[in-house]
TrEMBL record:
Full-protein positions shown: 1 to 299 of 498
Oligomer status and interactors: Component of a signal recognition particle (SRP) complex that consists of a 7SL RNA molecule of 300 nucleotides and six protein subunits: SRP72, SRP68, SRP54, SRP19, SRP14 and SRP9.
Domain notes: The NG domain, also named G domain, is a special guanosine triphosphatase (GTPase) domain, which binds GTP and forms a guanosine 5'-triphosphate (GTP)-dependent complex with a homologous NG domain in the SRP receptor subunit SRPRA. The two NG domains undergo cooperative rearrangements upon their assembly, which culminate in the reciprocal activation of the GTPase activity of one another. SRP receptor compaction upon binding with cargo-loaded SRP and GTPase rearrangement drive SRP-mediated cotranslational protein translocation into the ER. The M domain binds the 7SL RNA in presence of SRP19 and binds the signal sequence of presecretory proteins.
Record protein name field: Signal recognition particle 54 kDa protein
Coiled coil: none
Gene giving rise to this polypeptide: g3083
Record's catalysed reaction(s): GTP + H2O = GDP + phosphate + H(+)
Length: 299
C-alpha cells in the first residue's frame, strides 16, 4: 500500500463518521476498525495502533458527556492528533535540527547498507552549509569498496571537505583522526559516515560502538529507507539498543514510500524524524513536519 492509499483509507473512514446521521457506538467502531486495519496493513506497530484506537474512543466518549454537538470534529481531530503524536516522540525536534553554532558538532550516521546513508550525509552537510555552518565529512566505512570514493565525489560536488583512507582498515581509527583534524581546522559540523551491512550483524554493531566511543558524537542519526514497512521497528530498535540514536532521517520518500515505517521507527527509537530524503539529488532533502506529514497522508 502506498502512502496515499493509507491516507485515503483513513480519510474514507473519517467520512463514514461525517456522513452518518447519528454517531453511535456502531459507527465509531466501524470507523476505527477501518483505520486500524489500514494502519496495520501499512505495517504500523500493533501496540501503537491499539493505543490510537483506545485514545480516540476515550475522547469520543468524553464528547458524549458534553453537548455532543462537536463529536464529528472531535473524532477527526483526535485521529489527526494521535497520528501526529505517534510521529513526534516527545523530544524537541527543533532543538535537534538547530545545531549550535560556534562549537564542533559531531554527528554520526548509522543505518543498513543501501538505505541512502552516504548520500544523506552529504545532503545533511549541504543543508547546514547553506545555513552558514562549516561542515566536513569523515568516511569511516571501510567495509564497502568504493564507499570512500562515493563520499569524495558527493563532497567535492557540494564543496565540502572530506577525510578518509584507502589503507587504514580500522574505521574507529579513521573516524578519530578525521574528527580530530576537522576540529583543529575549526569545522563546526563534523559528519561521520559509518559502514552499513546488509543485515544487523553483530560485527557492524561492535564497529558502531567503537566509532561512537572514539568520536563521542553530539548526535547519532539513524538513516532508514522510507519504503520498508514492519521491519522498520526491529531494525530501528536494534540500532537504538546499540548506540544512542537521537534522531531519524527517512530516505526515499519519493516513489512508493509507505507511511508505516515512519511511525514504527519513531516508536522504536523514541527519537523524532528530523529530515526526509525525496530523491537522489543533493537538494532533494526536506525538514520533516509531523502535522504536514499527517495532513498529506489524509489528503
Ligand atoms: P548507503 O549504502 O546507505 O550509503 O546508500 P547510498 O547513499 O549509496 O544510496 C543508495 C542508493 O539510494 C543510491 O542510488 C542513492 O542515489 C539512492 N538514494 C539515496 N537517497 C535517496 C532518496 O531520498 N530518494 C531516492 N529515490 N533515492 C535515494
Amino acid at each position: 500500500m502506498v502512502l496515499n492509499e493509507l491516507g485515503q483509507r483513513i480519510s474514507n473512514a473519517l467520512a463514514m463518521v461525517n456522513n452518518a446521521e447519528t454517531i453511535d457506538e456502531k459507527v465509531l467502531d466501524a470507523c476505527l476498525k477501518e483505520i486500524t486495519t489500514a494502519l496495520l496493513q501499512a505495517d504500523v506497530n500493533v501496540k501503537l495502533v491499539m493505543n490510537l484506537r483506545t485514545n480516540v474512543k476515550v475522547r469520543a466518549n468524553n464528547a458524549d458527556k458534553g453537548a455532543g454537538l462537536n463529536k464529528r470534529k472531535i473524532i477527526e481531530k483526535s485521529v489527526v492528533d494521535e497520528l501526529s503524536s505517534m510521529l513526534s516522540s516527545g523530544l524537541d525536534e527543533k532543538q535537534l535540527v538547530d545545531l549550535k553554532k560556534g562549537k564542533p558538532n559531531v554527528v554520526m550516521f548509522v543505518g543498513l547498507q543501501a538505505t541512502g546513508k552516504t548520500t544523506t550525509c552529504t545532503k545533511y552537510g549541504a543543508f547546514y552549509k547553506k545555513k552558514g555552518f562549516k561542515p566536513a565529512l569523515v568516511c569511516a566505512d571501510t567495509f564497502r569498496a568504493g564507499a570512500f570514493d562515493q563520499l569524495k565525489q558527493n563532497a567535492t560536488k557540494m564543496q565540502i571537505p572530506f577525510y578518509g583512507s584507502y589503507t587504514e582498515t580500522d574505521p574507529a581509527v579513521i573516524a578519530a583522526k578525521g574528527v580530530d583534524e576537522f576540529k583543529k581546522a575549526n569545522h563546526d559540523l563534523i559528519i561521520v559516515d559509518t559502514s552499513g551491512r546488509h543485515k544487523q550483524e553483530e560485527s557492524l554493531f561492535e564497529e558502531m560502538r567503537q566509532v561512537a566511543a572514539q568520536t563521542k558524537p553530539d548526535l547519532i542519526i539513524f538513516v532508514m529507507d522510507g519504503s520498508i514497512g514492519q521491519a522498520a521497528h526491529d531494525q530501528a530498535k536494534a540500532f537504538k539498543d546499540t548506540v544512542e540514536v537521537g534522531a531519524v532521517i527517512m530516505t526515499k520518500m519519493d516513489g512508493h514510500a509507505k507511511g508505516g515505517g515512519a511511525l514504527s521507527a519513531v516508536a522504536a527509537t523514541q527519537s523524532p524524524i528530523i529530515f526526509i530524503g525525496t530523491g537522489e539529488h543533493m537538494d532533494e532533502f526536506e525538514r520533516f513536519e509531523a502535522k504536514a506529514f499527517v495532513g498529506r497522508l489524509l489528503g
